[in-house]
Design goal:
With 428 residues, the chain is of the alpha/beta class. It contains 15 helices and 16 strands. Bound molecules: pyridoxal-5'-phosphate.
Length: 428
């Protein structure tokens, strides 16, 4: 029955979107799956957007949507925020790509170090993936070891996806994978590897792995193990840095040795940064021995730098981030109440939320193993039918331009989407 409903939803999706179908057919001739991001590879074909403004999107077939995905958390300021547009326009006037440094880089670095207590110095990259690659590589150089301790369900970018059984195109670091929120599994790994670990790479909340928050005791326990064994602790805050003005680590009162950020900080332009303890970051300093070169043509690209300066300096005020966090907590509570009537639930932290097609408690990726993902796919299609766009995996993010009215519209659409099928049908 669920298969029938899903097939019907796919047919309805295709029927409403002839232009998107044509676009996909031509893209698929030259792009594997017709996309450049696996996450956008939707059945029957990807969702194709022509334009966006605020928290609205228009697809290439002319339909309008409320956007509750925000490009997988990049769109914290909404689409086309004035401050970022002005920053980009200023670069259009002065020029870009000079093979030289610019004052704006020092400004962005200062703004990051002032914001995140554990950052003494920073290095920019073009993406969150690269920031994590730099962080892990620095930890390997600092320790002389190459084994990375990661967590089942951890996602740190296109080359660093740690979900057990994942078929990602990972870089060949030696990996040992532990269970999230299970300090015993980390203690055992430390026992087995002794001093042979390069680093622990950890999200304070499993992000793509299902918005599963880390327990404060678990995260503190990992911090203590790293301190006791002299292992570099990397907090990947590419998603969680939005939870408070100082990131998740400020809310938790736990400092990482290295921290990576990206996504929304670049205001929608490619951005990544790794920052942290002076004695590790100095490995990138040519006046220090030993030091290591790390270049990247676009590490300091002027568009991203100008946009990040605008985001950090003008958009991401403490007051706005706190409001956003509270709004997210409220929305998740209301969504969860609705979802539980049909055997779903919402997990998350602040303005980041995941919808899961199960009512069992979720503390690690293992708790999501084997659940029937077809139900969340159907819910995705039912929401899209009601002109609300979320991630196909059930990912929902809030932005600064959502308000009570849009949240109400989201919850109404969610209630209707859940009512589109009775309990028996959802569970079949
Ligand atoms: C926690 C986390 N780390 C790293 C990344 C990779 O960032 P990017 O896509 O900019 O390479 C992501 C992207 O989703 C992420 O969620």
């Amino acid at each position: 029955m669920l298969d029938d409903a899903l097939q019907h939803a796919h047919a309805r999706y295709a029927q409403r979107r002839p232009m998107s179908a044509r676009l996909h057919a031509s893209a698929a001739r030259f792009l594997p799956s017709g996309t450049t991001r696996s996450v956008l590879d939707l059945t029957p074909f990807p969702f194709a957007v022509e334009s966006g403004w605020g928290c609205r999107l228009r697809d290439v077939d002319g339909h309008e949507y409320l956007d509750y995905l925000g490009d997988y958390s990049v769109g914290l300021a909404g689409h086309n925020p004035r401050e970022v547009r002005e920053a980009v326009e200023s670069v259009l006037v002065s020029g870009w790509s000079f093979g030289a440094v610019a004052p704006v880089e020092a400004e962005v670095a200062r703004l990051l170090c002032e914001r995140y207590a554990s950052m003494d110095r920073v290095r920019f990259t073009s993406s969150g993936t690269e920031a994590n690659l730099v962080a892990v590589s620095l930890a390997a150089k600092a320790s002389g070891h190459t084994t990375v301790l990661g967590f089942d369900g951890g996602y740190h970018g296109g080359f660093l996806s740690f979900a057990r059984g994942s078929d990602s195109l990972n870089v060949p670091f030696e990996l040992t994978i532990c269970d999230y929120n299970d300090l015993d599994s980390v203690t055992s790994a430390f026992r087995a590897y002794g001093g042979r670990l390069a680093c622990v790479l950890l999200e304070p909340m499993l992000g793509s792995g299902g918005r599963i928050p880390g327990d404060a005791t678990f995260l503190q326990g990992v911090r203590d193990l790293c301190t006791d064994h002299g292992v570099v602790l990397i907090f990947d805050e590419v998603q969680t840095s939005r939870t408070t003005p100082g990131g998740a680590q400020s809310a938790l009162g736990i400092n990482a040795d290295l921290t990576t950020v990206g996504k929304y900080i670049g205001g929608g332009l490619g951005f990544g940064a790794v920052g942290g303890r002076e004695d590790v970051m100095c490995l990138l300093d040519r006046s220090h021995e030993p030091h290591f070169d790390h270049s990247g043509t676009f590490n300091n690209n002027r568009f991203s730098m100008a946009a990040a300066a605008a985001m950090l300096g003008r958009v991401l005020t403490a007051e706005r981030l706190d409001d956003l966090h509270q709004r997210g907590e409220r929305l998740r509570k209301h969504a969860d109440e609705l979802l539980r009537t049909r055997g779903f639930q919402a997990t998350g932290w602040g303005s980041l939320m995941s919808i899961h097609p199960t009512d069992r408690p979720i503390r690690s990726a293992a708790d999501l193993a084997g659940i029937d993902r077809r139900r969340v796919q159907l819910l995705f299609h039912e929401l899209l039918e009601r002109n609300v766009y979320i991630g196909r995996s059930g990912f929902v993010t809030l932005s600064l331009v959502h308000d009570d009215e849009t949240d109400h519209a989201f919850l109404t659409a969610l209630g209707e989407a859940l009512d589109a099928h009775d309990h028996h049908e959802w569970m079949s």
